[in-house]
Automatic annotation (TrEMBL):
CDD domains: PAP2_like_2 (cd03392). Belongs to the DedA family. This is Phosphatidic acid phosphatase type 2/haloperoxidase domain-containing protein. SMART domains: acidPPc. InterPro entries: DedA-like, PAP2/HPO, PAP2/HPO_sf, VTT_dom.
Amino acid sequence: MFALMVMAGNQEFPLMSVLVWSFIGAVLGDAISFYFGRVFKNKIPNTWPFSKKPEWLEQSKAFFNKHGGKSIFIGRFVGPVRPLIPMVAGMLSMPSGRFLAVNVISAIGWAICYVLPGYIIGSAMRLDIDLPENFRTVFFTTVILVICFIALTIWAYQNLHPERSAYQHMQYVFKSNRTLATVWHRLSAPRTDEPTFPLTSLLTFVVCTLFFLSWIFWVDYAPHPLLTDNALLELSKQVYNESSQKVFVAITMLGDPNLLYFCAGWFAIYLTVKRQYSAMILIGCVTAVSYFSVHFLKEAFGHPRPELLIEPLNSFAFPSGHTTGATVYFGLIAAFIAQETEQHKRWPIYAIGLTLAIVVGFSRIFLGVHWFSDVLGGLLLGFMIVALARVIYSPFNQHSIKHNKTDIWLPIALVTTYLGYYGYEYTNQLTKYAWLDIFSR
């Protein structure tokens, strides 16, 4: 797959076509496997090769029984039983609607993760970019760090909640020291008989802070723009035209600050009605922190944007404000929704929030208004703010948010705001993001 994507990038295949067809292929592949499992579930164990290797099915069933629906998502990316998971899900009568939702969401991430790296390298090879002497060291170090970060995130999600031994061990360590015991007590959420310490949020904040500090050091130290920045900029030039511009503008508007302020206001009103005053204040403070931190960092680094627009934007590039805002907004909303959901059902909520933030970030790259380094910096900064906000909010998280039928006004208000904003601002946004040479393409 990686080799094919390198070839696609090297031969100038349209990126959007490659992504779309990769996504369709991923969805159809798992859907067909699921269908075979649902229809032929009693015949499959007696059919070759499973009649010769019954342990393959047993391992897949054990994996599915352990992880449930999220095994579809996990199996899309990792695991020796990856090809069999959708079929086993069909054999074990997983609801079709639930499978379809996970299948589509995971296919989006799969298409991006499996297509872009090879495509970028192939495009870079075609562009004959001279690699710096330390490029390979930096590249492989970055890959290792990303893999470690993903592995740590999965481990934290699975183990750092009160029912697991890792959480209980950390609780014992903290309570063995008087100072740490005080920290544990004051930061624990008093929603249950046994207050819950925000261990996952605290670990996320520490890890993202380390990554962010390392990244801003590298961005400030290395010649700007970075090699990856230039490679993705060239890709943007290949896929940008009047049709793709309309798609990218529609996506990037999801992270438009003015729209996010409106929607955050609706959520603040909703929380006030529910008498969740601490949560309402939290949203206001997080909004202010996001705004000022982005503007401070932009002025501190002073990195210029790509010079592609007819009318250049009047702010600096690093970090991406749209990406930071989308990460904070969708991440915080996902966290509030997830806290009212059972532990094993939370991961799709976080996955949707993360996907929306990443999609907004990449739209900034393909609109030619940000470098990749700006978007990654915005994502890390957004994660830091959300994680720290959840840690600070934890001792005030005393009561669950009780939903009722009258809460329908909130989604109606949000949808109306989105549609109204798009109807009013979309044409202006198309003009705002028009390139100098758009009509010559």
